[in-house]
Every structure is written in C-alpha cells, then in structure tokens.
Amino acid sequence: MGKAFADGKRYFHENPSITANQLYVYAVSLAEKYGWEFGGPIAGHLIGQFPHERIADDKVTLYVHPKSNLRMRATDEKGQPRHWILEIHLIDRERRIGGFFEELLTVD
After folding, report:
1. Which residues 6+ apart lie within 8 Å of 12 measured at CB?
2. Among 19, 37, 80, 91, whose Cα sits 20 to 30 Å from the Cα of 8?
3. 21 and 68 in contact (C-beta within 8 Å)?
4. Strand, helix or coil for residue 37
5. To 10 degrees, the CA torsion angle through 38, 34, 20, 103?
6. Which is nearest to 53 in space by CA: 69, 67, 41, 37?
7. Which residues of 18-35 are buried (b: 16+ CB within 10 A; e: fewer)?
C-alpha cells in the first residue's frame, strides 16, 4: 500500500500540469501494478471536501475523479494554491479483502 501511494505522489510531483482525471487513471494503474483492483470511485479530494458524500456531476472537480479535468495545481477562485489528499484503495474481490490509505499529497 505504501509503495503504491509513494508512486502516486511521485507521479504527481513529476507532472506539474497533471489533471485530476490523469492522476485517477494512474492510481488505477498502480492497483493493477501491485496485483490488486482499484476499489474507489475517487482517488482523492481537495482539503475540506469529504468523499463520503455522493458526488454530483457538477462537483467532480472537487475530487481526483475520472470526469474531472481540473489542473490540480491551478489556484482557487481567490488565487490560493489548492491542497489535495491522495487516496489509494486496493481490493481483492475474490478474497474479500482490501486496504485504504490517504495522506496529504501537495505538501511535503
């Protein structure tokens, strides 16, 4: 789990113009790389927004989501930097097990 998260964080930092949907696709590929299935509808969210709520189509930009093309390093409406949480969900449906790890992505 930790290796997948570290890979995701490194990918984010190596790609300064990355969009939320690009990071989502990469998170899914990490699950496959490590022999798991990606188990979540999102791979992260902005600080202060809770992914436990249902995501309306017009709110996908608040999440690392396959339909969000928001540049993750774009500033908010006040010109402030945005801070993101990266979430890695790994599951094995056959064995009915999984794990979840989340941590701040944008501040070292």
Report:
1. 18, 23, 72, 86, 105, 106
2. 80
3. yes
4. strand
5. 90
6. 41
7. bbbbbbbebbbebbeeee
Residue showing tokens 């774009």: 74
- Over residues 7-48, the pLDDT tens digits come to 999 999 999 999 999 999 999 999 999 999 999 999 999 885
Residue with tokens 């056959």: 94
Phi, psi of 101 (to 5 degrees): -140, 135
Report percent pLDDT > 90 for the chain: 72
All residues at 6 or more sequence positions from 81 whose CB lies less than 8 Å from its CB, including other chains = 73, 75, 106
Q: What is the pTM of this model?
A: 0.89
* Rg, Å, the chain Cα set: 13
